[in-house]
Amino acid sequence: MKVLVTGAYGFLGGYVLAELMNRSIDTTSPPRDLLDLLKPDDLYDWYNWTEADSIIHLAARCGGIGANQANPASFFHDNLQMGINVLEVARMCRPDKVVLVGTVCSYPKHCPAPFKETDLWNGYPEETNAPYGIAKKALLVMLQAYRQQYGLNGIYLMPANLYGPGDNFDPETSHVIPAMIRKLAEAKRKRDKEVTFWGTGRPTREFLHARDAARGIVDALLHYDSPEPVNLGTGIEVGIWSLAETVAGILGYRGAIKWDATKPDGQPRRVLETARAHESFGFAARIPLYDGLRETVEWWSKQPS
């Protein structure tokens, strides 16, 4: 097997490459400056040149609530177009398998928790990330249609919110865990007496370490062939307020944590039903959240300021 991994130089991509290499699976990962996924001819030429026989599509334009609000059109267009191009190249080149990685943001805003794959179409996504979530969900429809019409063996995975060493810590585009770590670490360094985060702190989220996610993606590549989407997660829900207190404790920050309720909370709850992944290809997360947070904090503390 030789696997072409798009987005291999991104956060999750590095973990997926490591997992494939650990299993002695050959990989090819086009650098960003050599392949523009918005141009289908580039991808077609690269796929044929490398003679890969499977594709894992990880490349995405994504970010936290602020980035989604600032770039809704780009998040919709770029994610949809990249996925369309990957599937069109797959239709022409006939790989053994295509793995598309979707997002928990595709679920309805008021989906009953835990989110089951069968609930995916029972409502509109949370507004702040709806363009991103709908673009990703549209690719599930396209993948299933290509399976039906062209016999394309494609699978679709939806991981919970990811985190871990190597995450994006840019304050303008980062997700909640790296944003919290950076803000609290800077507050400790400056000896600030308080830190303010967006929202009320009441929403809940589920967090999956990127190393666990990578293992699940490769397990699915090797052992899952159904057209039905699959959640990847821990099944454990944590409040954002509690998360902030935990990160502060790991960092040793003793100031006050406050919340700006004028800023959006995002989706009220997010936690996944993970039975399908376990039953279909034996996946279960292994890294407890506290251990993963501590590892991520330690990694960040070693980065140049």
What does this entry show, briefly?
The protein is an alpha/beta fold. The chain is built from ten helices and twelve strands.
Any chance you could write out the topology, listing elements then pairs?
Elements: E1 2-6, H1 11-22, E2 26-28, H2 40-50, E3 54-57, H3 65-70, H4 72-93, E4 97-101, H5 130-150, E5 154-159, E6 161-163, H6 176-190, E7 194-198, E8 204-205, E9 207-209, H7 210-223, E10 230-232, E11 238-239, H8 240-251, E12 256-260, H9 275-281, H10 289-301
Parallel strand pairs: 1-2, 1-3, 3-4, 4-5, 5-10, 6-9, 7-12
Antiparallel strand pairs: 8-11
Helix pairs in contact: 1-7, 2-4, 4-5, 6-8, 6-10, 8-10
List keywords for this structure.
305 residues; alpha/beta; Rossmann fold; 6-stranded parallel beta sheet; two-stranded parallel sheet; 12 strands; 44% helix
CATH class: Alpha Beta
**Going by CATH, what is the homologous superfamily?**
NAD(P)-binding Rossmann-like Domain
State mean pLDDT (0 to 100 scale): 95
CATH topology: Rossmann fold
Number of helices: 10
Number of distinct beta strands? 12
List SSEs in N-to-C order.
EHEHEHHEHEEHEEEHEEHEHH
Percent helix among the residues?
40-55%
Question: What is the domain tally?
Answer: 1
- Which band does the percent of strand residues land in? 15-25%
